[in-house]
Specification:
about 90% helix, mainly alpha, 3 helices
Length: about 150
């Protein structure tokens, strides 16, 4: 480009041999301009390559960022499910303790009933057994719901 401008200027008389007494000096300047043009073209090409690489890396970064956001959402969902399950486990543990206590009471009443002198205890045991059966039925329903 610059070489063409110098040649054009030379043709129209703006640059002549009087200004540059030595034709070799003019040729050296033209050579330097050509080198600069080549360097500018190489730098322009390198810049275009760097821009393309930058855009590719930017796209990859955005993809990774979206994946991270999705993973964080999945993790938060999993954490909330774990907390919910922990609450259910605590409820089941309480139910288990209550059932163990009821079973212990049942065994004690069973021993009392085996003694023939305890007719009143037998009637009380029947009432307790009915309560126990209702409680177990309710516990089973709760367990099925969970």
């Amino acid at each position: 480009m610059i070489y063409g401008q110098i040649t054009l200027c030379k043709q129209i008389g703006m640059i002549n041999d009087k200004v540059y007494k030595d034709n070799d000096a003019l040729e050296e300047i033209i050579f330097q301009f050509k080198s600069l043009e080549k360097s500018a073209m190489v730098l322009t090409s390198a810049l275009a390559h760097e821009k393309a690489a930058h855009n590719e890396l930017k796209g990859r970064f955005e993809t990774v960022q979206q994946q991270k956001i999705a993973q964080v959402e999945d993790l938060n969902t999993a954490r909330s499910k774990v907390k919910e399950l922990e609450g259910r486990v605590k409820q089941l543990e309480k139910n288990e303790l209550s059932l163990k206590e009821k079973l212990k009471n049942f065994k004690q009443f069973n021993n009392i009933v085996k003694n023939p002198r305890n007719a009143e205890a037998t009637a009380e045991l029947k009432t307790k057994l009915d309560d126990y059966i209702r409680y177990v039925d309710e516990a089973i329903k709760v367990l099925h719901d969970l």
